Each structure stands twice: as structure tokens, then as C-alpha cells.
Amino acid sequence: ATQEEISKAYRNLSRIFHPDKHGNGENKQKAELMFNRTKKAYEVLSDPHQRAIYDSLGVKGLETEGWEIVHRTKTPNEIREEYERLAQEREERRLHQKTNPRGNISVHINATDFFSRYDDEYYDTGLLPSIEVSGMSMSQSIEAPLSRTEIATLSGSLHLQNGVGSGNFLLSGKRLINKGWFEVDCGAGNGPVLGAKGSRNLTNRIFLTGGTTFHFRPNAIIPGLTGTTAIQLDKSTVGYLTYNAGLQNAMSTVVERNTEKYHCNLTITLGIPHCYIAASYTRKLLEQGLKLRVALKGGSFGFLSECGAEKKVSKYSAVSATVCVGVPSGVTLKIKIIRSTQTYLFPIHLSEEIIPAAIFYATVTPLLTYFVLKKMLFDPMNEATKQKNIEKVKETNSARMAEKRREAESAISLMGALYERIRKDEFKSQGLIIVSALYGKFSDAENVSLEEADDMGFVQQNPYVIDVRIPLQCLVKDSQLILYSSSKSELPGFYDPCFGEEKQLKIDYEFRNNSYSSVFADSEPVRLPVVMDDSAQ
């Protein structure tokens, strides 16, 4: 809207709600309330800075942020709740930033007895196939910021495979320096370990990372060396060249591309004991919270292919399933559960050879399990959480909702004369006449009404729907009704009858002696009359 249109609308509303035009008593008090609200809106929209904030962030953007992001009309209890919530969120962020805990747990399960059962004439294998945990590994790390440029990290891990266990811990100190960082490590596992590594940016597009380690064994000291050169090829593509010497010798080249829609990489490795080529592609479906991934890997060790999906089930949680088929590894199903910074991985080895039945069940079982859990667990939990939050918001804002309702009723009571004049003019010109207008939450737009029957059959007022026929008729100008793409609850004579719920606006109207009906979403723009042919009337 131009500034001229805003000024003209302000003058029109001021004439409607000016207290001097409504005598004394209750109507004058209602007029003063609406006049002050109209004046406040005009002050915001007349100031370029405040209007820019409002256009970007709405009403909340006009108020200060952080600890002061509270409505000036809130009650002391509401303000106290707002402070407590912000304090809790700030404390959680502070604690997480200080420790940054990360953990991984992997449980290796051997289920090959399902598809390739071993028959032993001297040993009774039983009626049911056996499932055993063949290995387990756990790792955990926490960080402790010592200063703005120094961080200490403590990490450890435990590994168990076929009854043989091992473990290690590592203490690292990292310091940020000009254009890079430097780190010193010390730890113990299969003997003491000392190491140092660092990174430095050579240019805006090239950086180097290198390090050395010394493993102290009873009869020898085994040195290790690693170095990586990375080049930013374009905005989304990076190339890496890495060399490792020591316990394992290898040289690898990696090209990685990461965009909003997909992620892919290509790796070529030459080393001892294996050389291989690997490629992977991940498609990101952000709106569905879904990632689809395929990968191929082949070399001197054999061949491996992977196909999987990762689904986000809540703000901090995700689950994924990957089917791995290869030679000589056979068929493996990997189930991964991610909760914030903790990861739980369950590789289930189904067969040592490529068996079609194992591939089929590894593909179908996770899909069926997910849909069953989604229907019986995830959806009810999310819906219960949503309803709980809505009820909490309703309770917190009950006083504000009641005030908004009183404002809307006051505005409607002051629109009587204007409503009659506009309706009379539109009737004479066969223009736009609002016959009925309902706003609120309703699933069946054809049968929505202001009244509904309860479980006992008694008719009562529908608390989720309000009558907005008079306010909408007052907004008709030159036989047209134009509403822009924003919530209708802020219009004069409107209020939000179901806070936090999806709302609709149903309008039954007459134009040129023909009847029409239209339904709009809450934030959908409205332009009436809708141009349509005779068959759509």
C-alpha cells in the first residue's frame, strides 16, 4: 500500500471510530479503544523504519528482542513465564556450548542364521534361528572452552569384537591462531600415544591440514604422518588430496559437492592393503525432512553397494535404514537412530552371500516398521505434543484473547451505520453484498455454522467460529473486497477464536443478482467478486 492509501484508510476509520461521533456512555468508551488502536497502527505504518520492521516480522518485530521480547500489555504472570522460558533456553544453550557432548554407540548383530542356517549333525541348532551380538563399540567426547581461543577435548572409546576388547582415551588441547589452528594430543590405548596437528589457510580457496603421531609399543615406536590439501573449486565444490603414512599407508583424492538439494562425492584411494574407488549421492528433500542415499564402492577388497533413507521424525531426532550388498561381505542392514548429538548404530548382518530373500526383507522390513511406528507412535506423540503446546498457549494468552474479543465486538457495534450505508449502496448498484461470512476452524466448509450439537444432542455456540459479515461488508469499496496475504485475525471486527489452529474464511455473497460462495485460508489473499463462468457459479 502506498502512503496515500494508508492515510486515506486512516481518515476513513477515524471518522467511523472517532469518540465525538458516538455520544457518551459505553459506545464512546468502545470508540476510544478502537480509535486509539487505529491511531497506533497509523503511527507504525507512517514511520518507514517501523513499517519495515512490521512488514518483515509482524507485530512481534516491533518489540525488543532477547530478554525484553515481551508484549507491553502482558500481565505480570505472563511476563514472569516469558522470563523463565527465555532463561531456561539460554541456560541450555550455554551448557551445550560449554561441553558440546558427542557420543556414538554401535551394536553389531549377527543374524545370518535366518537365511543361511548352519546344520550340524553333532549339535542341536534348535527350532528357532539364533541371533547374537558379535561386537559393540562406544565413543564419547566433551569439550571445555578454556578461553576464547583455546579448547580442551576429552574423548574415549571402547571396542568389543568376538570376545576381544580394547579401548583408548585421548586428551586434546586446541588453540586458534591467525588463519588456522594448532592441536596437541596425548592418550593411551594399546600403549601411549602422542601427537600434534594443525591447519592453515594459504589463500581464500586453499588450506592445508597436517599432523604426526607416535604410538609407543613395548618393542617399538611407530610414527604416523598425515597431510591434506583442500581447494575450493567453486561455491559448492571442494577437492581434497590426502596422504597417510604409518600404521596404514594410503593416498586418496576426494571431490565433494554439497548444495541445498543434494550432496555427492567421489573418492579414489591407493594404499596398502587396499585400493578402491567410491562414489555416493544423497538427495535432500527438505520439505519432507527426508534424505535418500545411494553409494557404490569397488576395489581390491571386493564390491559394495548401499541404498538407504534418513527421515527426520522430530526437531532433534532422525532415523535411517541402509541396505548394504557386497562381495565378500554379503547382505547387511544398518539401522541408525540420531538424537541430538548422540548416534546409535545397529548393523545387522543377514547373510554372508548375496541372497535375494535377504535383500528383500532388508528392504521391506524397515519400511513396514517405520509406517507402523509412524501410525501408532510418532503421529500420536507429535499430535499430543502439538495439542499440549496449543493448550498451553491458549491458557497463557487467555486474557489477551478475551481482550481481543471485546475489541472486535466493540468495533462491530460501532460499524452499524457504515454497514447499512454500504449495503444499501451495493444493493442499488447490484454490487457486492456479503450474505454470510464465517471465520475460524472448520473441516467441512459446506456445513459450517455458528452453532453445533454436543454429544447429548443439545445445540450450543460453536467456540471456534465467529460471524464477520458486518466487518467484511464495511471493507467493500466500489463493489470489490480486497484483503492481502496476512492473517485475517488482525482486521477490525475480527479476532482469533482458536489460537494456534489453522483457520479459514468462508464468504457467501451476491453479485449482479447471482449467489456465490468462496473459502480462503487464513493467510490467503482475498479478491471478490471472483471472476468465473456460469458453470462455476
From TrEMBL:
<keyword id="KW-0143">Chaperone</keyword>
<dbReference type="Pfam" id="PF00226">
    <property type="entry name" value="DnaJ"/>
</dbReference>
<dbReference type="InterPro" id="IPR001623">
    <property type="entry name" value="DnaJ_domain"/>
</dbReference>
<feature type="domain" description="J">
    <location>
        <begin position="1"/>
        <end position="58"/>
    </location>
</feature>
<dbReference type="Pfam" id="PF22774">
    <property type="entry name" value="DNAJC11_beta-barrel"/>
</dbReference>
<dbReference type="InterPro" id="IPR036869">
    <property type="entry name" value="J_dom_sf"/>
</dbReference>
<dbReference type="GO" id="GO:0005739">
    <property type="term" value="C:mitochondrion"/>
</dbReference>
<dbReference type="InterPro" id="IPR055225">
    <property type="entry name" value="DNAJC11-like_beta-barrel"/>
</dbReference>
<protein>
    <recommendedName>
        <fullName>J domain-containing protein</fullName>
    </recommendedName>
</protein>
<dbReference type="GO" id="GO:0042407">
    <property type="term" value="P:cristae formation"/>
</dbReference>
<dbReference type="InterPro" id="IPR052243">
    <property type="entry name" value="Mito_inner_membrane_organizer"/>
</dbReference>
<dbReference type="InterPro" id="IPR024586">
    <property type="entry name" value="DnaJ-like_C11_C"/>
</dbReference>
<dbReference type="Pfam" id="PF11875">
    <property type="entry name" value="DnaJ-like_C11_C"/>
</dbReference>
